[in-house]
């Protein structure tokens, strides 16, 4: 049998798993592994400027490709800097492997230099974690880690490796396992056919149905099945923030996003529905508003791979635990075989009602005749300049909601944002991960002057690897979403939400070796966008000044029902 | 409602901490907890008692099942079961009290496992209710120290929790 050092085993295992990129930052406890990486050329290491960015870049790569993102960090601060990225991936069920160095095994527990109990610190934000206790276990641990991260409800898996277990002078027999043996982990592979049949019967009887699809449809590669089912039944579809792109954003049957900042029509349709098919969505608080008042007349059919997501927030009438694609495919097959039709007459009336809601609001906003431009206009200009085809990553706040509302995503994996954790600083490193996965694709990072400064150092990484990401900095000189809440709930007292002393982002971009544009007038926007996207091999930082007083609407009225919304600063339902 | 959840899990370092951490992360209570390896040294059996309504217990069992190291689990209180807890207790035993304590121990079918001139050390096995009844019968003023194992449980009849 082949004899390898622990460090070489780590690198070989990554090769066996088909890893193209590993995002990381070196340090004392992982130096043996870095040396092993140096001596091969199958796995490319991407040097970030902060470990948090490594995790978000790997996360962006994973969201864009469906393959696990891989990260390597050193012990102590390197590892703890990866926590936010682990938590981000955990909340959004993103497959990720984080390798963290650890102090040598005989020093563990002695408060050694750069020692942190990473298994302990990361425990609540990983799907699982392993500590390498014997170098011989490395192949099996890696096999299990990749399997766990990518199957069932995906999630991040941490592998903590003490430095002495990767020492180059100690070798051990190496054989990469072909199969995983895990008696205690068996994700569901099929939904219960009886439940699926019951669900199909409900769908056929429905008079006011809504399909409510989430990130599980994207992760579970079920977009095609979902679209087929919706078309076949002529049912309206709404997507969660995580689900955008799972159903084509420009399709007639698409109602837009639902929830706290969802469209009027999506929220009204949900509230008035008699049957809701929730697919790969978890009825979280940003969607439901008060669960007590949630969709009072609706029967809930809930498909999810994770049994713990079902009936957690809202009780399901027909729970179906299973992979969403398989369940939707089986529904389609049942519909074909029964040759039954939905209630066309009722659906016609339902669509009339929905079209009325669409006309009533339809994401309208007021523009300023001579004053500053609106953030919505920026997203619409971006949509136009990129022909609706760009990968769009975002940070967190108002700009994220405007991007979600106004960029019509037609493909799954096209929209990449931190939905569950809401991590500011996610956008730029995530865009890097996407650009590595698809070097020729157009990648735009929609961000704000608050969020972008949380990982701005990655401009340096972008220069090193020639990543032509386009940064759309929607600059309202304020932490917009915080400010909006302060306007609405705190009497307009803008406590700490004002961004004073902003840098000159154009000069900053130039200092990092990139191109910077400043746009202050709406009439310059389209031209500047077109120019930016014509610079195909350059990163362009577009610093776009917008109206600081703008709010995101619709907005749920707290503790109300789905239909209770603010529609503008002065109108409510 | 009080529940006894019995878990079969991998006997690996870190497994127990995941189970315990889950309870604090998600705001569930642990009232008692016992854990030890089974006849198969690769498996541990963990028994815990907790309280909650149907909804909460369902969430607890679902989340426990999601832990990679949890192999199987059962809510023993769903069916007929046997539960036991062992208690070791130091009791003041002087003067007239000495005989009285001995009588109470006998009534509860406990054993005196250590004796000094002033103290009895008593061992008692039974359900949680029985142990509490004994503490009440002895009276708090007499009790010097109490050590309880936490509840262990097993289903009645032929039902087994195994691989």
TrEMBL record, chain A:
Note on how the cofactor is bound: Binds 1 thiamine pyrophosphate per subunit. Binds 1 Mg(2+) ion per subunit.
Pfam families membership: TPP_enzyme_C, TPP_enzyme_M, TPP_enzyme_N
Top EC class of this enzyme: transferase
Organism taxonomic ancestry: Bacteria, Pseudomonadati, Pseudomonadota, Gammaproteobacteria, Oceanospirillales
GO molecular function list: acetolactate synthase activity
Naturally occurring in which organism (per UniProt): Alloalcanivorax balearicus MACL04
Annotated family: Belongs to the TPP enzyme family.
Domain Thiamine pyrophosphate enzyme central: 196-330
Keywords: Amino-acid biosynthesis, Branched-chain amino acid biosynthesis, Magnesium, Metal-binding, Thiamine pyrophosphate, Transferase
Top-rank taxon, per record: Bacteria
EC number(s) stated in the UniProt entry for this protein: 2.2.1.6
Residue ranges of every copy of the Thiamine pyrophosphate enzyme N-terminal TPP-binding domain listed in the record: 5-117
Residues covered by the Thiamine pyrophosphate enzyme TPP-binding domain: 395-544
Protein name: Acetolactate synthase
Pathway where this protein functions: Amino-acid biosynthesis; L-valine biosynthesis; L-valine from pyruvate: step 1/4; Amino-acid biosynthesis; L-isoleucine biosynthesis; L-isoleucine from 2-oxobutanoate: step 1/4
Catalyzed reactions: 2 pyruvate + H(+) = (2S)-2-acetolactate + CO2
UniProtKB/TrEMBL annotation, chain B:
Catalytic activity, EC: 2.2.1.6
GO MF assignments: acetolactate synthase activity; acetolactate synthase regulator activity
Signal peptide (UniProt feature, chain positions): none
Record-linked Pfam families: ACT_AHAS_ss, ALS_ss_C
SUPFAM superfamilies xrefs: ACT-like
Pathway per the UniProt entry: Amino-acid biosynthesis; L-valine biosynthesis; L-valine from pyruvate: step 1/4; Amino-acid biosynthesis; L-isoleucine biosynthesis; L-isoleucine from 2-oxobutanoate: step 1/4
Record keywords, A-Z: Amino-acid biosynthesis, Branched-chain amino acid biosynthesis, Transferase
One cellular-component annotation, GO: cytosol
InterPro entries: Acetalactate_synth_ssu, Acetolactate_synth/TF_NikR_C, Acetolactate_synth_ssu_C, ACT-like_dom_sf, ACT_dom, AHAS_ACT, AHAS_small-like_ACT
Gene3D superfamilies: 3.30.70.260, ACT-like. Chain A, domain 2 (3.30.70.1150)
GO BP of this protein: isoleucine biosynthetic process; L-valine biosynthetic process
Keyword hit for Transferase: yes
Catalytic activity: 2 pyruvate + H(+) = (2S)-2-acetolactate + CO2
Residue span(s) of domain ACT: 4-78
Family: Belongs to the acetolactate synthase small subunit family.
Cross-referenced PANTHER family: ACETOLACTATE SYNTHASE SMALL SUBUNIT, ACETOLACTATE SYNTHASE SMALL SUBUNIT 1, CHLOROPLASTIC
NCBIfam families per UniProt: acolac_sm, PRK11895.1
Role played: Catalyzes the conversion of 2 pyruvate molecules into acetolactate in the first common step of the biosynthetic pathway of the branched-amino acids such as leucine, isoleucine, and valine.
Subunit structure comment from the entry: Dimer of large and small chains.
Record's protein name: Acetolactate synthase small subunit
Lineage: Bacteria, Pseudomonadati, Pseudomonadota, Gammaproteobacteria, Oceanospirillales
Name of the gene: ilvN
